[in-house]
Amino acid sequence: MLEAVIADLISIPNYNIITCIQEDLTTAIPNFSQWEQDGRLQVHRVGDPREEQACFEQACRQSDIVWIIAPEFDEILSSRTERAIQLGAYVVGSDLKSINLSADKWRLYEFLHDRSIPTISTLLLESQQLTFPCTFPCVIKHRFGAGGLGLHYFTQLDDWQEQFSHRQVNHSEYIVQPFVSGKMLSAVVLVNSHCREFFPIGEQRICWESGFQYQGGAIPSELAIDVTQSVQNLLQRLCNELPGLAGYVGFDLLLPDENPTDPLVVEINPRLTTSYTGYRQLTQENLAQRIVDSETAFPLLKWDETRGVQFRPDGTVLINQMQS
């Protein structure tokens, strides 16, 4: 994903890019070296977190625009956004209030529930939980997890007692939800000062046989027109309730098998997601330019309806021709 983002940013005239990567990370784009020689790209290769933090802060001081691509867990996205703002940087993306709310799955559930926005029933585990508060199968998530980290899937009480209840963990940092069978969707809204653009709705591929395994996704998902409209109506409502969402915002949704026309909100990701690598293959427009140049009124995006993409968890993309 980093390579895709840098390639798109470099293609914007008069943009120079500063980024930081782990020193042993290899890149597959041969143009990286040429871009560095031309002075268009500065890549700081670092070996430890303190060096990376210093590079990040220096880049914030030097840059006209800062685009932070980071996960929500451990408050990484929030703390980096806050630090960039403190350094006087112009940060594209959602505000701190929206980031912090989205990062905490329990607070997000309370927010959605209070506003009667459809979501999965959720309970907060108590520190001294003696009985299991949910039916089986169920899902337990770390309330500050991201990308499936801290997620456990249980089919019976014995599994819970063996794998989770005896572990030395702070139970109050976990939430529990009933497992709802259905189709997992991935939606993106590009939000700027001029409009909200809905990207084609994608499908997430998740294997539950071994607990939880994210296997990538596909864009677009085959949905009936009324379902697509229901999803877009739900996304509009979420953006209205959270006006601090901005830039590229990802939404994880679920179409329950029992009510396949009534989508449920699972998570909100106020940041770039892996699906970016797929979406950029379905349009000739530069998505990165629309994200960083958020004050410009661009024409509406045009999507190639003759193709679809599948992408792996690492962002590798396979392009498919769509059948008419």
Automatic annotation (TrEMBL):
It comes from the Bacteria. Pfam families: ATP-grasp_3, preATP-grasp_3. This is Carbamoyl phosphate synthase-like protein. Keywords: ATP-binding, Nucleotide-binding. Gene3D superfamilies: 2.30.36.100, 3.40.50.11770, ATP-grasp fold, B domain. It comes from Gimesia aquarii. One of its GO terms (molecular function) is metal ion binding. PANTHER family: D-ALANINE--D-ALANINE LIGASE (PTHR23132), D-ALANINE--D-ALANINE LIGASE B (PTHR23132:SF23). SUPFAM superfamilies: Glutathione synthetase ATP-binding domain-like. The keyword ATP-binding applies.
